[in-house]
Amino acid sequence: MIGASGERYPGGMKNRVAVSGATGRLGRLVCEVVEQHPDFELVARLRSTSRPEDGADADILVDVSRPDVSPAIVDAAISRGQQVIVGTSGWSADLLEALESRLAGTPERGVIVVPNFSLGSVLGTALARIAAPYFDAVEVVEAHHPGKVDSPSGTAVRTAELMAEARRGRPVDAPFAEQPARGELIAGIPVHSLRLAGVVAKQEVRFGGPGEVLTVTHDTHSNEAYRAGVQAALEAIADARGLTVGLDALLGLSGAAAAGDAR
């Protein structure tokens, strides 16, 4: 288990993991990754409707539940002294700010929020962030399977927020943005959501400039795309302190993308 000093697996014991939202698409994969990893033990498969005390004996809570219940689940886990990985969509900049403030009172605890566990998606967002300062027009189109309850996706929201940050306050050219058909504005960037049978996940970031269009596209064909990212988050959570947002921070991509922000 995780000791008070942050030591990983003292005495050779495995870290005990509870998964909230274990019956969903991503939840089932997370459970599988935990069970196959020699350093972790799955001790609870929780539903979004599980009692607050369920899974209390775990060292780590992985929350892949629903946007409407995720903040309360995470808050309860922090109160119990658990390390937390959040893979649930819907964690906006305001929610992340509140979570960071919450963690300030428990400096020995850590939460990793992962908008997308796909390595390709993380790289796509990093490339979009690098390109964002160089084009006046930017739009995002994201598509997911019909069972995804939130829109825009957490990945699209995070991508838009990072691109706006990279632009350093320079507004995006988004004509007629007040029209509903133009998509929802996230940090000033139009985001369009599709929910279609036959789709797992897809995101396109389109940049328009004089005489050219640049498109950064990522397609997810199966949940296998998330396996490596889930494992990376599990292996990092023992040493996490405070709030970490994005798989890019675990892979060392944050600095590379930020280097492109200075234009």
TrEMBL record:
Pfam families: DapB_C, DapB_N
Domain Dihydrodipicolinate reductase C-terminal, first and last residues per copy: 122-250
Enzyme Commission designation: 1.17.1.8
Pathway(s) of this molecule: Amino-acid biosynthesis; L-lysine biosynthesis via DAP pathway; (S)-tetrahydrodipicolinate from L-aspartate: step 4/4
Keywords: Amino-acid biosynthesis, Cytoplasm, Diaminopimelate biosynthesis, Lysine biosynthesis, NAD, NADP, Oxidoreductase
Main location as per UniProt: cytoplasm
Positions contributing to NAD(+) binding: 21-26, 87-89, 114-117
Superkingdom assignment: Bacteria
Amino-acid biosynthesis found in the keyword field: yes
Domain Dihydrodipicolinate reductase N-terminal stretches: 16-117
Location relative to the cell: Cytoplasm
Active site (catalytic residues): 144 (proton donor/acceptor), 148 (proton donor)
Binding site for NADP(+): 51
Reaction equation(s) it catalyzes: (S)-2,3,4,5-tetrahydrodipicolinate + NAD(+) + H2O = (2S,4S)-4-hydroxy-2,3,4,5-tetrahydrodipicolinate + NADH + H(+); (S)-2,3,4,5-tetrahydrodipicolinate + NADP(+) + H2O = (2S,4S)-4-hydroxy-2,3,4,5-tetrahydrodipicolinate + NADPH + H(+)
SUBUNIT field: Homotetramer.
Family to which the UniProt record says this protein belongs: Belongs to the DapB family.
Function summary: Catalyzes the conversion of 4-hydroxy-tetrahydrodipicolinate (HTPA) to tetrahydrodipicolinate.
Name of protein: 4-hydroxy-tetrahydrodipicolinate reductase
Organism: Leucobacter alluvii
